[in-house]
Amino acid sequence: MNRNFLLGILLAAGIAGPAMASAPLPLQHHGGVWQSGHVQGIAVDQQAGYIYYSFTNLLAKFDLQGNLVGTLTGWNGHLGDLDFNPADGKVYGSLEYKKDQAFYIAMIDVDRIDRVGIEATDSEILRTIYLPEVVKDYTADINGDGRFDGDDGKYRGNETASPDHRYGCSGIDGVAFGPRFGHADGPQLLTVAYGIYGNTARTDNDHQVLLQYDVSDWQEKAQPLLESAPHHSGPTQVQGKYFVRTGNTSYGVQNLTYDAAQQRWYLGVYQGRKPTFPNYLLFAVDAAARPTPGDLIGVPGNTSGRWEQGQLLPLADAGLKDPVTGIRGWMQKADVGLQAVGDGLFYLASNFKQDGKQGAELHLMRWTGDPERPFVAAEPQR
User: Fold this and answer.
1) How many percent of the chain have pLDDT more than 90?
2) H or E segment at 317?
């Protein structure tokens, strides 16, 4: 029986008491140093007391006291941002195989990670869900020359310069659970953010693209990871596809989190390079903001002289404001780990190198809302 489901039964029966309450969150947390890619994202299970780190080709599980519980390794794809789903006790993460044109959500049975060095391909701890909507945009022949220019051919090693990829889609990165856009409550959906190539010469890549999925039936769709024969089992439709005009960023939304306390989504990005935009590092969208159909400025439509239409989400009325574009955001690094943990608190990750290896450290921060300094160090919890 799933431990979260069991906890719900115990709480309802009045059996679970204060001893089962969430442990205090540490002000700092170290994610170790690894021979791997740099840290991509984190997930926090406050009830059970674990923190998970994605190091691109390695997942590390720690308890809140900083003790290493176990690791999961053994894939060649790019594991990106993570989020914990309390409904099923699993960690979800973006997993990319660009050369295979396969983009997945990894569903990781983290309860079974109990030792160092578990191979993902030797068990079904990690299963995957194929996302055809992402593949369709990633492989789109935008310049109409009859071929897709991706990771091979003319643009091999310089995919950013390819004229193809709808909306500049480079795959996926940020993931987070939260309500349907336009609502501050209701069923929790998985939001998946596109990576966006940082091509400064094109105009159709100035929106963040967010997909929402109902994952309630994904247990049946999930397949074991088999890199030699990538599967195509996944949802045929999305619950919603939305666009946020931020200006182009380098590889889109790297980290995504939903803060239930403020009822707001936060989008952490690598800084863009187009001089016509403010190139903020952090953006926000209010949960209750209603999506509205409108022009995707810069994306040519089917009718000459018209922009493509899409469901637009407005940026939150907060943070710095660019006087030319009206775009709002913050100059706050939030690109390698960003997780809301309740009561106005967030974990922010910083990455570092040590002896040629990659490391990460978390800092517990409190949201201030100040345009210049949106986070300050949190005080010790009591």
Assistant:
1) 88
2) none
DSSP 219-275: HHH-EE--TTS----S-SS-SEEEEEE----EEEEEEEEEETTTTEEEEEEEPP--T
Q: What is the mean pLDDT of residues 204-232?
A: 97
Residue 282: band (very low, low, confident or very high) from pLDDT cuts 50, 70, 90: very high
For Cα atoms 72, 19, 3, give the angle at the middle one, nearest 5 degrees: 40
In whole angstroms, what separates CA 170 from the centre of its chain? 14
Q: What is the pLDDT of residue 1?
A: 44
Could you tell me where the DSSP H helices lie in the chain? 3-13, 132-138, 218-221
Give the position of tokens 């909507």: 133
Q: Do residues 284 and 266 make contact, with C-beta atoms less than 8 angstroms apart?
A: yes
**Token pair 């894939």: residue:** 75
Q: What is the DSSP letter of 16?
A: -
Q: How far apart are CA 223 and CA 230, in angstroms?
A: 10
Model confidence, pTM: 0.94
The SS3 call for residue 195 is strand
Q: How far apart are CA 177 and CA 82, in angstroms?
A: 10
Instruction: State the pLDDT at residue 17.
Output: 37
| Chain center to CA of 300 | 27
Q: Two tokens at 28?
A: 């700092």
Q: Which residue has the tokens 């469901």?
A: 311
Which pLDDT band, with edges at 50, 70 and 90, does 23 fall under?
A: confident
Cβ-Cβ contacts under 8 Å for 128 (sequence gap 6 or more): 95, 104, 105, 106, 107, 222, 223, 224, 225, 231
- Say how far apart CA 153 and CA 151 lie, in whole Å: 7
Among the residue ranges 1-15, 96-110, 132-146, 153-167, the one predicted with the least confidence is 1-15
Q: Which long-range contacts (CB under 8 A, 24 or more apart) does 370-375 make?
A: 371/318, 371/319, 371/320, 371/330, 372/320, 374/282, 374/319, 374/330, 374/332, 375/332, 375/346, 375/348
Contacts of 75 by beta carbon, 8 Å cutoff, 6+ apart: 57, 95, 120, 121, 126, 225, 227
